[in-house]
Amino acid sequence: MAEPLFNRLVLIGIGHIGASIAGALKLHPGTVEQLVISDTNPDHLQRARELGLGDDYVADATAAVTNADGVILCTPVGSFAGIAEAIAPHLAPGSILSDVGSTKQSVIRDVLPFVPKGVSFVPAHPMAGTEFSGPDAGVADLFEGRWCLLTPIEGVDETATRKIEQFWQTLGARTARMGAAHHDRVLAIVSHLPHLIAFTICGTADDLADETREEVLEFAATGFRDFTRIAASDPVMWRDVFVNNKDALLEMFSRFSEDAQAMARAVRWGDTDYIEDKIKRSRKIRKTLIDIKQA
Amino acid sequence: MAEPLFNRLVLIGIGHIGASIAGALKLHPGTVEQLVISDTNPDHLQRARELGLGDDYVADATAAVTNADGVILCTPVGSFAGIAEAIAPHLAPGSILSDVGSTKQSVIRDVLPFVPKGVSFVPAHPMAGTEFSGPDAGVADLFEGRWCLLTPIEGVDETATRKIEQFWQTLGARTARMGAAHHDRVLAIVSHLPHLIAFTICGTADDLADETREEVLEFAATGFRDFTRIAASDPVMWRDVFVNNKDALLEMFSRFSEDAQAMARAVRWGDTDYIEDKIKRSRKIRKTLIDIKQA
Ligand SMILES: NC(=O)c1ccc[n+]([C@@H]2O[C@H](COP(=O)([O-])OP(=O)(O)OC[C@H]3O[C@@H](n4cnc5c(N)ncnc54)[C@H](OP(=O)(O)O)[C@@H]3O)[C@@H](O)[C@H]2O)c1
Ligand SMILES: NC(=O)c1ccc[n+]([C@@H]2O[C@H](COP(=O)([O-])OP(=O)(O)OC[C@H]3O[C@@H](n4cnc5c(N)ncnc54)[C@H](OP(=O)(O)O)[C@@H]3O)[C@@H](O)[C@H]2O)c1
């Protein structure tokens, strides 16, 4: 058997993504010698233990990271600064600190200042997930065939970056590198804005007068049903994503708003060519996604 | 075996919904004595014949409806006025004219004026469908467990309405009656607005500078992927729905816009309570949908 990538790997936060990593590591034994699980939520830590997700369970993150050669932050991005500040003095020299956060500029802004010399910080974002949360929501093959994007920081040890790439590839993901700002723009349009819209339209429906609201729920058709699925996602995780990718999200929102206004205007004035054209174009995008197997 | 509901039933338009009705009728033999299929698209009519969807295939709708005791319009709602005008003189006394259109006020506006005395017009809308179109997109169990909404016109023969209800119930649907204006408002929020939004965001993504666009497609995450699925729907059908449910759609759009602006404002000012609150509320809606088994 090949050398393990990490002797002692700590997952801080054992929710949907943390538990999925733990599950994936079971499918690929030998990748990690010892998997340590840390979470401030005692119920989640206990549940992780019941599910046998790791080899060791340590509530206190500062204790957990001591002697670890790998640490992955798997909590909502708003908690990263506090966690980084707390664990920094306890990180072992030569160890790698990584994360799975959905925003990358904010993560670098919040974590990097605390990273001690001799520790390599490698920001990463596995682009896979469902609307479920918590340790029971772990999906062992979640990363299979999906992308994991790395946004390496200049001057960081290339060996560390390669190790994180290898880690995700072992769990079945394809990896790519890009700048953090670019990452945040791409994610704003493919993920963050769709979520913001889905959350919003559910609220709009819920605000309708009582009689209509009940029928909205009763007769929920395809479109709305799909939106509510997205909208069932974790409030804290998404709140943190929105405020931590504010600039890119607001830019994409404002582009979307203009386009939606133009579409509404075409509906108002019966500009059928415009409407048909826009729909045809969306169809083409869907076709491209199917062709490149992302749908 | 019980009496058939219709001796000669004509489906005008053999696309996704028409072909699904034809498929469902095969699952429930004896419901209709003779199923006649009509479509102006010779390829679709030929394909329907190859698939053996009906008992008779008649391109010309006026010829098809002669001697029929039931006719269901299954074409995009924008074509209803023209078809109604053409077939009206050929409709048999005592026959029932119905439809599957996604908008109901416009359908009544466009069809009712042409309906001859002695013919009962029963507007209906089976709330089931996918993003696919054409005769190959027929799904025999599409209506199973789904709603079919009827918006009966005052003064129309109750026996005719009951017959259409029985028809849809036989195909597995639950039926409900409501006013056409109410139908159009409910549908605007649960289906038409979600589609308008999905079409729009695909365009917004496609407008991004070339480099980002490619990565948008390459890295399409959950949110966007789900939106493109909705957005792959038929351009003509949806164009017709939008302009024929203009008032309700624009009202719902304007409510949604206000709510989305408020959400964007909360993101800009870091109002995390507001954001979390809205997301929690969407989650609750999803939960309700699951509880009443519409998700
Ligand atoms: N879900 C997705 O689709 C997805 C996809 C890619 C990346 N991500 C990223 O993955 C990360 C985790 O998301 P998730 O979906 O796994 O969320 P989750 O299911 O809610 O799990 C987060 C876990 O971290 C715990 N936690 C919160 N604050 C903590 C702290 N300060 N110290 C230790 N533990 C803490 C949570 O406990 P409590 O529940 O008690 O707070 C929970 O057990 C986020 O950064 C997110 O942006 C998510
Ligand atoms: N798809 C859904 O999710 C859904 C759900 C519920 C209700 N509906 C309603 O069902 C109806 C049909 O939708 P669909 O999805 O089945 O569309 P579709 O798959 O595009 O089928 C429509 C069929 O009607 C033909 N057609 C068009 N104009 C015609 C005319 N004047 N005379 C005869 N045939 C004509 C079309 O041929 P061409 O392709 O050559 O035009 C096509 O074969 C619409 O009114 C829609 O609002 C749809």
TrEMBL record, chains A, B:
<dbReference type="Pfam" id="PF20463">
    <property type="entry name" value="PDH_C"/>
</dbReference>
<keyword id="KW-0057">Aromatic amino acid biosynthesis</keyword>
<dbReference type="InterPro" id="IPR050812">
    <property type="entry name" value="Preph/Arog_dehydrog"/>
</dbReference>
<keyword id="KW-0028">Amino-acid biosynthesis</keyword>
<dbReference type="InterPro" id="IPR003099">
    <property type="entry name" value="Prephen_DH"/>
</dbReference>
<feature type="domain" description="Prephenate/arogenate dehydrogenase">
    <location>
        <begin position="7"/>
        <end position="295"/>
    </location>
</feature>
<dbReference type="GO" id="GO:0006571">
    <property type="term" value="P:tyrosine biosynthetic process"/>
</dbReference>
<keyword id="KW-0560">Oxidoreductase</keyword>
<dbReference type="InterPro" id="IPR036291">
    <property type="entry name" value="NAD(P)-bd_dom_sf"/>
</dbReference>
<dbReference type="GO" id="GO:0070403">
    <property type="term" value="F:NAD+ binding"/>
</dbReference>
<keyword id="KW-0520">NAD</keyword>
<keyword id="KW-0827">Tyrosine biosynthesis</keyword>
<dbReference type="Pfam" id="PF02153">
    <property type="entry name" value="PDH_N"/>
</dbReference>
<comment type="pathway">
    <text>Amino-acid biosynthesis; L-tyrosine biosynthesis; (4-hydroxyphenyl)pyruvate from prephenate (NAD(+) route): step 1/1.</text>
</comment>
<protein>
    <recommendedName>
        <fullName>prephenate dehydrogenase</fullName>
        <ecNumber>1.3.1.12</ecNumber>
    </recommendedName>
</protein>
<dbReference type="InterPro" id="IPR008927">
    <property type="entry name" value="6-PGluconate_DH-like_C_sf"/>
</dbReference>
<dbReference type="GO" id="GO:0004665">
    <property type="term" value="F:prephenate dehydrogenase (NADP+) activity"/>
</dbReference>
<dbReference type="InterPro" id="IPR046826">
    <property type="entry name" value="PDH_N"/>
</dbReference>
<dbReference type="InterPro" id="IPR046825">
    <property type="entry name" value="PDH_C"/>
</dbReference>
<dbReference type="GO" id="GO:0008977">
    <property type="term" value="F:prephenate dehydrogenase (NAD+) activity"/>
</dbReference>
<comment type="similarity">
    <text>Belongs to the prephenate/arogenate dehydrogenase family.</text>
</comment>
